[in-house]
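__Protein archive entry__

___
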Amino acid sequence: MTTWTDYLAQQGASVDTDNRPTLRFGAAADEVRVAVEQTVAVPLLHLGLIRSVGPESAPFLHNLFSNDVNKLAAGQAQWNSFNTPKGRMLASLLLWPEGEGHALVASADIVPALAKKLSMYVLRSKVKLADASADTALIGLSGANAAALLGRAGLPLPEGSLQQAEANGVRVVRLQDDLYLLAVATDAAAATFGALLEAGAARAGTAAWELATIRAGLPLVTAATQEEFVAQMLNYEVIGGVNFKKGCYPGQEIVARTQYLGKLKKRMYRVAGEAGALPAAGSDLYAPDFGDQSAGKLVNVAPSPAGGFEALAVLQSSSAEAGEIHLGSPSGPLLKLLELPYALP
């Protein structure tokens, strides 16, 4: 175990590693209730980090991803997708420049294979890629008082969404208002997390962060949903994860055709289900207009503070407009459509 995980264990954390690392300090249902009432600090063990280093890091990543990495300024961050040649997302990525290259954050369960696959494209490029998950700890901060807590903890505060600030070895990326991701060397993570708690944050586990990102409409591609979605199905062009003016990249033709020919029939929505076993990401959804055929899939799922669960779900737009969505089978439990914090095209 690392000093970071030793510290978390001393704090009362338990980690389930059956599929991807899931951390909790108590019952997930209790933690999400705390998360809507207070500002919470969350060890993001379910995310991993790949580091790209070298003088050609920007053009190398630019040629592989859906966004314009070449024009990304030092103080910014951006969403990106990495796709198959058929335009299906292999990974959703948060990317930012740092030092002599870039950091890429993705779901921990796909990071080792993703780092290996990206390395296959290096060839003669002056860049080196490595899974840096063991060297860099990621911490989430979510809640109305997040900005004030960062100040009290002596940590940098980015000015706006998808901007970053770094000081004393701690990098803070602002995803949206009241939602921040911190990256810090693993051996300094305990001190950073402790400073957030001393500043007034409540500790919480993975479910609290997943609920916050679901409510923010920010999807995460995991092993269960790789190659299921084109970027626009996950609203990636809405959250700023696709640049339609940049050059070619794997899957670019499909992504562009989907955009300009108006062939997108599925979108990501936010849904809620009643109490019961928490469904898995990738679970099929059904609607009367598609009969026995799947009308969509769950993307990310978290317990709801009201009971039951909330989720991001990719659905046939016609099914969403009709409003009758069933989980697991055509006669399965009904889901309720909820609002996203942004408008869909």
About this structure: The first helix runs from residue 3 to 10. DSSP finds nine helices and 19 strands in the chain. The chain has a mean pLDDT of 96. The chain has two domains: 1-216, 223-338.
